[in-house]
Amino acid sequence: xxxxxxxxxxxxxxxxxxxxxxxxxxxxxxxxAALGFDGIELFTASGNxxxxxxxxxxxxxxxxxxAAVGTGAGKVIxxxxxxxxxxxxxxxxxxxxxxxxxxxxxxxxxxxxxxxQGNAIAGEKHSIGIGLLAEGLHILDQHAASLGVKLIYExxxxxxxxxxxxxxxxxxxxxxxxxxxxxxxxxLFHMNIEEADPxxxxxxxxxHIGHVHFADSNRKPVGFGHTAMQPIANxxxxxxxxxxxxxxxxxxxxxxxxxxxxIRSFKQFFK
Length: 271
Ligand code: LER
Ligand code: MN
What we know:
By secondary structure, the protein is an alpha/beta fold. It is about 45% helix and about 15% strand. It contains 10 helices and 9 strands. It has helices at about 25-35, 50-60, 75, 85-105, 125-145, 165-175, 190-195, 200-205, 230-240, 255-270; strands at about 5-10, 20, 40-45, 65-70, 110-115, 150-155, 180-185, 210-215, 245. It has an 8-stranded parallel β-barrel with strand order 1-3-4-5-6-7-8-9, surrounded by 6 helices. Helix 8 (about 200-205) runs parallel beside helix 9. The longest helix is centred in the middle third of the chain and has 22 residues, at about 125-145. The protein is globular and about 50 Å long. It starts with a strand and ends with a helix. The mean pLDDT is about 95. It binds L-Erythrulose (LER) and manganese (II) ion. L-Erythrulose (LER) binds near residues 72, 112, 115, 213 and 248.
């Protein structure tokens, strides 16, 4: 059963980013629950920024699940990536992600590696970056196994990373490295830029997809852009995706209207 989620970002440094709700966790969760979302996706400054017991109580009270936790703060606040040429930075990146995985695992939620993958040096040395990413993900794949959760790796569009841009790239990388606990994030905004045929790519890589970011072509809430969403939703439903479809979109025109538009679209396309 496909479930709906909405993002809540609690990191002021990323305030211009594509997240629907901001700042007040309790109030945002109340709004998400009132609109009928099944879950929330959280962006926090670190794995210990929120008291887990408080979150457990709030999730219980609002009858919401924790869909995933984002690790982007590791890059934005601390400058950490898995492919930095400096080994200390890479080690700190792994430690930051592990802490975030431990936070999410208490709620059965996977952590997402998006911008923390970083970038490879362009040209001949590009393969070094891919190697560093594989090295970091091997450690994190094992950490996911020990915690009993999945880890979500997100191909990004070419303006954000030169590592992996499509689901095909991600699936081949997972297969060649024999990762057992890493799944892919199908971010419909990135896919709109990079995939020749998003529906065909979803069909081909469905077994690897563990999370979906729900946004329109312009990264506004679904319905405010020109992505043909029904065939994408149909592909996810027909080929058996049963995770969250989570609104990572700009809070346009404002968070409340963006959230309302998202749940309307979710109900329209995922009937
Ligand atoms: C993270 O989920 C993502 O999609 C990135 O583009 C955000 O910077
Ligand atoms: Mn995303």
